[in-house]
Amino acid sequence: MKKAIMAASVLGLAGVVAFIGEGVPADEPTFAKEIPKLEEIEAEEYFSGHDGTFVLHNLQQDRTFVYNHERAEKSFPPQSTFTVANALIGLETGAVEDEYDIKYWDGIERELDVWNKDHTLGSGLRHSVVWYYQALASDIGEEQMQKWLDAISYGNRDITGGIDQFWLSSSLEITPLEQADFISDLYYEVHPFSKDAMKTVKRMMIEEEGDHFTLYGKTGQGPDVGWYVGFIESGNGTYAFVTNLDGTSAHAKEITLSLLEEFHLMDGPS
């Protein structure tokens, strides 16, 4: 019964929304930078004893649902979720030309077989190829990287951990609520990047296209944290989401998909 009430509460904000095609934002809300009203939801059973948080932002109604508000306001290294911002900055500064911009494998064997080959900006994001995005960050350089992290107010904006390390269990940290804001602004293309850059990165984030939804996402994982962030366009509305827990990114994604299904965000219009 509690699940049904929670799903009805989330869906009740969506209203009747037509399916939104890739790259075509819903009607834009007013972006007044004020403290949002956060509505608590129950999701403890999905986290299986892990300390975690789930943030779900209704992009049409500009309302945010949160499980475990306390953790949602804590800062964590973004890990490979930072590839989204890294790619945007790389495209904007000309460090890469497009999603097909290739970097050649250096021959060093790394822990994942999929990393041990040449990669493009797009494949590097999809497979969390750390060496590709380390090389990209070095090509961008500290001055431009700092400029753009300041411009988009990304977390604590701290890159002192080193140009090819700062987002990997190092100096840069961001809260799950800040991640939700960053993803929401990317969806609406209101970041200070070119529209082309933002459309390209959103296209790179597509993970699944169903009959009634398109899922965009990015995982990230470190020694003590797992992330899954993104947004979903569906017949029941468009929502940004962030899952963060003291576990793996695979578990974060699994939890996210279960909750999106629970809220009928992968179904046809209801």
From TrEMBL:
**Database matches in InterPro entries:** Beta-lactam/transpept-like, PCN-bd_Tpept
Q: Which residues form the signal peptide?
A: 1-18
- The UniProt record lists the Penicillin-binding protein transpeptidase domain at 66-249
Instruction: Write out the entry's keywords from A to Z.
Output: Signal
Pfam families (alphabetical): Transpeptidase (PF00905)
| SUPFAM superfamilies linked to this entry | beta-lactamase/transpeptidase-like
GO MF term set: penicillin binding
Q: What name is this protein filed under?
A: Class D beta-lactamase
Q: Which species does this protein come from?
A: Shouchella clausii (Alkalihalobacillus clausii)
